From TrEMBL:
This is Arginase. PROSITE patterns: ARGINASE_2. It comes from Pseudomonas vancouverensis. Keywords: Hydrolase, Manganese, Metal-binding. Belongs to the arginase family. One of its GO terms (molecular function) is metal ion binding. Coiled coil: none annotated. It comes from the Bacteria. Pfam families: Arginase (PF00491). Binds 2 manganese ions per subunit.
Length: 320
């Protein structure tokens, strides 16, 4: 199979240079938009979340008012910590062919980026986009711990016969031998999980923290479940955050995590561990506030991981 060419974004993330094919440029940090995943029967395709990659990129000037300006989250200018080669790989199209073929193309591109040692940021799409990324992590040949931020558990083995939909990414992760464990935070209310999925996650050894537990005890107990120095993949479902701050989601659930809880956690993980990749999924631009706050928070979460990973105490600092 020939490597799929991606579509250039309307505006690149932070105005980074664009590449539309693997290995077109030297790459230390890659950003990739994944609008598509395997749809459930009866769900719209493409869905609203498919618009999120370009909607988030469009807010680059809002979530970073100049890369040479002092960033108080990072305690430095973003430009002073970023490595030389940050590349926006545009959006992976799914124009024809089966979902199997599309997923293989996504996995192939991500595997080439990870194989070359890049740190990878993914803009979804719905939570199904995490699944081909989990497959691609095999190329690292190292155990990977998952940090999952979401209102929902996402442990369904299948829904309506679909195994790779947005209700299944963490179940999928649990079946991969290169995924060594997971920490799931922000759970509350109800979602696709039933008693059997909750018990399966516990049986696997997933460390689950409800949003209430984090409001009560803070992020330190979460951090303690993530092994020092581990390779970590972070998957953020936008509905893990509280909809009062992050309204642009399809499944708003009250009592969620706040940015001021998430940002220090993301920075701490990026220093304690090597965050090999991160996705932000389930942003639904049609439901966002008129000031695009959901997209701005999505961008700020990525900048916190990026800045902390490559900054003074970060796991990538020696590779600049
Ligand atoms: Mn989810």
């Amino acid at each position: 199979m020939n490597m799929q060419t991606t579509q250039a974004p309307v505006r690149p993330f932070l105005n980074w240079p664009i590449a539309t094919v693997a290995r077109a440029r030297p790459t230390q940090v890659a950003l990739l938009g994944l609008p598509h995943s395997e749809p459930y029967p009866g769900n719209p395709h493409p869905n609203d979340q498919a618009r999120a990659p370009d909607a988030i990129r469009w807010q680059s000037g809002q979530f970073c008012d100049g890369q040479e300006h002092w960033d108080f989250d990072l305690g430095a200018e973003l430009s002073s910590v970023l490595p030389a080669h940050c590349v926006d790989f545009g959006n992976m199209p799914w124009t024809n062919g089966s979902y199997d073929e599309h997923a293989l193309q996504v996995t192939e591109l991500l595997a080439s980026l990870w194989g070359d040692g890049a740190q990878v940021f993914i803009l979804g799409g719905d939570h199904g986009v995490t699944i081909p990324a989990l497959d691609a992590l095999a190329v690292l040949q190292t155990p990977v711990h998952i940090l999952h931020i979401d209102a929902h558990l996402d442990w369904r083995a299948e829904v309506s016969g679909v195994r790779r939909g947005y209700s299944s990414p963490l179940r999928w992760a649990s079946e991969k031998p290169w995924i060594c464990g997971m920490t799931q935070i922000g759970m509350r209310g109800t979602g696709s999980a039933r008693r059997e999925e909750f018990l399966a996650a516990q049986e696997y050894g997933s460390r689950i923290f409800t949003a209430e537990q984090i409001h009560a005890c803070g992020i330190e107990p979460v951090l303690a479940t993530i092994p020092q120095g581990a390779a970590v993949y972070i998957t953020v479902d936008a509905d893990g955050l509280d909809p009062s701050g992050m309204p642009g989601v399809l499944a708003p659930s009250p009592g969620g995590l706040r940015f001021e809880q998430i940002a220090p956690l993301l920075r701490a993980v990026s220093q304690k561990c090597k965050v090999v990749g991160m996705d932000v999924v389930e942003v639904a631009p049609s439901f966002d506030a008129s000031n695009a706050m959901t997209c701005i928070i999505a961008g700020r979460m990525i900048l916190n991981v990026l800045g902390a990973s490559w900054g003074n105490a970060g796991a990538y600092r020696d590779r600049k």
